[in-house]
Amino acid sequence: MLAVAVMMIMASGLAGIPGYAESAPPVTSGSTTRVIEAADGKPMVLEYTPANVQRLQPSASSRAAALLEIPIHHYNICAGNDSCVENPVLKDRAKNLVAFFKATDNPWFISLNEVCRQDFEDLSNRTGSAGTMVVSLPKNTNDCDGELFGSAILHPGGVKVDGIARYFSARDEGLDCKVDECRAMLCLKLQTYAGSMTVCTTHLENEEEWARPQAAEYLLASTAYAAGQPRVLAGDFNLLPDDLRDAVPAYFEGMHDLVAQDKGTMPTWKDHDDDPETYPRAATPDGHVDYIWIDRTGKPGTKAPYCPSDSLASDHCYTSGSWAHTLPSR
After folding, report:
1. What is the dihedral of CA 152, 158, 161, 167, to 10 degrees?
2. Residue 146 CB neighbours (<10 A)
3. In this structure, what DSSP letter does residue 259 have?
4. I want to staple 71 with a disulfide (CB 3.0 to 4.6 A). Which of 18, 107, 242, 251 is the partner?
5. Of the candidates 192, 198, 189, 200, which has an alpha carbon nearest to the alpha carbon of residue 151?
6. pLDDT confidence of residue 266
7. Do residues 20 and 96 lie in contact, with contact meaning Cβ atoms separated by under 8 Å?
8. Block mean pLDDT (10 aa), the chain, length 330
9. Phi, psi for residue 260 in degrees, rounded to 5
């Protein structure tokens, strides 16, 4: 289904996808927001439930076969080195991509990085999914016009029963998380038709010396929290596969990456300061830094990332994969 959607996009262009306007719709009336304020060295967390929650249901064929195909998606909405505020059309196109693939692939879980609070809530409404956001930067003037900024999980395939959010300890000690971006992780325990599952997201530092220990901490903390439940660990690691394998071989020894590693998820071109250039270029499939890790249970379905030809606010390609999981006996 996702391949068909990609062909449709390639043929018509992302901006021309039927049913998705360039500007995001307003928040649906009747939605609810719960804010868990930052305390005791932990980040702020937002829980959002739209009025139009649409629970995914296993198909009759899945029930008969006792096997579920679980699509999982990950995407960065903005790019931290440029302004989404100055390019609202490009940011809306990036959100359109999430909404379009939700409609065509029916992912159970959607991991979002570099997302503003309003965009998180917009996407929750547009996908009909409850979600949780961890705040890594309280006031992002670069991407969010002063709004909250961080990572989030939308979970149309599961109901949240618990969650944790934490900052990584391996970061610059001079950072003040009240005003600076502090890298964080979010894990949710969800009740699904495949049983209880733990789904996590993170956005690691863009410097290898920090990303390496954070990748290790992410795996250790999520493993301890999952306590034996099937895990999904998604996110922008800012580490190439060889670097991640060298830093934390346990990812490759104990888990599957659903993002095909013969394709990249980040561009390699540079601007005049030798920094990644974001506007008005589209991402190109080179440099694999986005991952969707799953436990070595069931059957993984890896997919190449989709890199749209249109310029978007994100400098990442859209990543997805699937996990064939046995239905628990009733």
Report:
1. -20
2. 12
3. B
4. 107
5. 200
6. 65
7. yes
8. 40 31 44 88 95 75 74 90 74 93 96 96 96 94 87 96 91 79 96 93 94 97 97 96 96 96 61 50 70 94 87 85 80
9. -60, 130
Side-chain-facing half-sphere of 266: CA atoms under 13 Å: 21
Give the largest Cα separation in the chain, rounded.
Answer: 60
pLDDT, position 8: 40
Distance CA 64, CA 29 (A): 38
d(CA 227, CA 214): 20
Name the DSSP letter for residue 143. Answer: T
Tokens of 156: 């149309």
- Evaluate whether 215 touches 236 at the Cβ level (below 8 Å): no
Per the structure block, which two tokens stand in for 125? 């409404």
Report the sign of the C-alpha dihedral through residues 308, 14, 200, 321, in that order: negative
Q: Which residues contact 232 (CB under 8 A, 6 or more apart)?
A: 72, 109, 197, 198, 199, 200, 292, 293, 294, 323
Q: Which domains does the chain have, with CATH numbers?
A: 2-326 (3.60.10.10)
pLDDT score recorded for residue 205: 93
Cis peptide before 18 (omega within 30 of 0): no
DSSP alpha helix (H) spans, 13-158: 60-65, 88-105, 117-127
In this prediction, residue 73 carries a pLDDT of: 98
CA 262, CA 107: separation in Å to the nearest integer? 23
Do 172 and 33 meet the contact criterion of CB atoms below 8 Å apart? no
- DSSP string computed for 1-19: -HHHHHHHHHHH-GGG-TT
Contact predicate 297/68, CB 8 Å: no
